[in-house]
Amino acid sequence: MLYEVRWSRSQKRFVWEGMEGQETAVAYESDGLCEVVETDDAQGRLHMAVDDLHMDGENLFAIQHPMEVSVPEGAFLMEGAGRWRVCYRRSANDWRMRDEDGSGKVTMVKSIRGQMRLNHHDHAAHLFHMGEAWFFEGITYLVPKVGA
Fold first, then answer.
1. Distance (Å, rounded) from C-alpha 124 to C-alpha 120?
2. 3-state percent breakdown (helix, strand, coil) of the chain, nearest 5
3. E-strand spans in 59-103?
4. In whole angstroms, what is the distance from residue 141 CA to residue 134 CA?
5. pLDDT tens-digit series, residues 7-28
6. Cβ(116)–Cβ(127) under 8 Å?
7. How far apart are CA 132 and CA 51, in angstroms?
8. Better pLDDT: 86 or 123
9. Domain limits of the chain?
10. pLDDT band at 147 (very low <50, low <70, confident <90, very high)
11. What's the chain's Rg over C-alpha atoms?
């Protein structure tokens, strides 16, 4: 199932809008595993694939079978402790990757791909990825932490 995920400034929630006829989900908190298929950089939206979504009140849990993420040859592992804050930078139509558990270093990227170990509990326009982040030609490739 494919969803377009965006932050609603009016609702202060992430909106998971079904792109293949699924119902739209509005979530206060999000957890789970999903694949970032592509990003809509002009609008600040993530296109996420999941096998299933479960809602418990306003809390969303994304389910996707683990997959092998293809990281391009020549990519380098971004320095960090394994918890990345991901957010859209509207002024430049790009994405911020911030190391949340280590240096606090911020890297601006053009786009995001890969499998995100999703964690959103800050109640703001940030998603968190638990795992590795690889960088190649302006794109970050996410690889989830095993067993997280």
1. 8
2. 0, 60, 40
3. 59-63, 76-77, 83-89, 94-99
4. 5
5. 998 999 999 999 988 889 999 8
6. yes
7. 22
8. 86
9. 2-144
10. low
11. 14
Per-residue pLDDT reduced to its tens digit, 88-125:
999 999 999 999 987 889 999 999 999 999 887 777 88
Cα 64 to Cα 29, 117, 125, 135: the distances in Å are 17, 10, 23, 23
How many CA atoms does the CB half-sphere of 2 hold within 13 Å?
8
| pLDDT of amino acid 115 | 94
Measure the CA–CA gap between 106 and 147, rounded to whole angstroms. 26
Quick check: 27 and 58 in contact, CB under 8 A? Answer: yes
What's the angle, vertex CA 57, arms to CA 51 and CA 58, rounded to 5? 80
CA–CA dist 121, 128 (Å, integer):
8
